[in-house]
User: Fold this.
Amino acid sequence: MTSTPKRALITGITGQDGSYLAEFLLARDYEVVGMVRRSSTVNFERLGHLQDRIEFVPGDLLDEVSLIHLLRTHRPAEVYNLAAQSFVQTSFSQPVLTAESTALGVTRVLDAIRFVDPTIRFYQASSSEMFGKVVEVPQRESTPFYPRSPYGVAKVYGHWITVNYRESYGLHASSGILFNHESERRGLEFVTRKISYGVAKIKLGLADELRLGNLEAQRDWGYAGDYVEAMWLMLQQDEPGDYVVATGETHSVREFCELAFAHAGLDYRDHVVQDERFFRPAEVDLLVGDPSKARQVLGWQPRTSFPELVQQMVDADLELVRSDLERHRAPRL
Ligand code: NAP
Ligand code: F7E
Assistant:
């Protein structure tokens, strides 16, 4: 007898993590429904290879009726809430919009689940940015939060409303406290991709300098493709919970530059220029997670090392810039 495939809804499917999670779930025979908000141009750059296998449906975290309608129509067994205004720098200039999607958007999804089908399992994309000005090193599930940006504050709300709906209404709602995870699909504005793309432009003669902000900030950087497995594992547990997902290692932006430029045969000191515009009103200086719970309970661990991640991103951007050049396309940043 063949079993019916499980159906999952991903909000934020057009983003970095959405594309990796969709791949991961399709490989496990899920039916994947992806919520996409309306925009004037099609935004499936990260999903081109999967486009025929995903059902795209319109919806927006700012519009609760669209969420209710979507759940009623598609009846997913699992909902992964990855959608958010996720760029920390933008959260300083657009704090209210950030709160609408990154904070209140979570309540809207949870309420829609409660209203339509409380047996739906829910994953919330929480963030190490909640630890902000850290009060403990390394950071674990019990570490108190001290967010340092409107984005971090909004994620704290999203985290606690997830815990609250779990405790108040018995929802199977889990929160993954994910530390920075990167890839060749990362948005160009985030520092790792800005560096790998900048290295490629410099190497291929399209630029001479790369302007960055604080080079001393330290992050626990992993590979996005490894992290989506942890999201899925959380929803396969009998009991919902909160999990730190991290590598347990920390590196500075300066170290990232050093490795990335060296991989292309360059010295970052010849090209990186510090620019006040890229400093933040309040910085998160040091993040490093303790993923022991994820390892022990979920059996999850990262597979990609820091040097492998950096090299993979630089190689992919060298390839991208070369192929754009061949097609006479202007640089993307
Ligand atoms: P991302 O690449 O910026 O993707 C964000 C996604 O959210 C995009 O698909 C975007 O759609 C969608 N979105 C934004 N506002 C929306 C709205 N109002 N309604 C519906 N969709 C909306 O982010 P990511 O790196 O994949 O991260 C995924 C999630 O994990 C985010 O919640 C992020 O805050 C969180 N997180 C990320 C990291 C990390 O290191 N990557 C770490 C911890 C937590 P458009 O394509 O239309 O813009
Ligand atoms: O900055 C410093 C910057 O923008 C990392 C999001 O996915 O991870 C991400 O947030 C560090 C910061 O990521 C530049 O000041 C220096 O200290 O790549 P980022 P983020 O702020 O850590 C968390 C976990 C999330 O949840 C978020 O959604 O790098 N930095 N110079 C710079 N950062 C940028 N973007 N640009 C620079 O020129």
Notes: The mean pLDDT is 97. Residues 86, 88-89, 127-129, 179-180, 189-192, 194, 212-214, 217, 219, 253, 278, 280, 283-284 surround F7E (ligand 2) (CB under 6 Å). The longest helix spans residues 95-116.
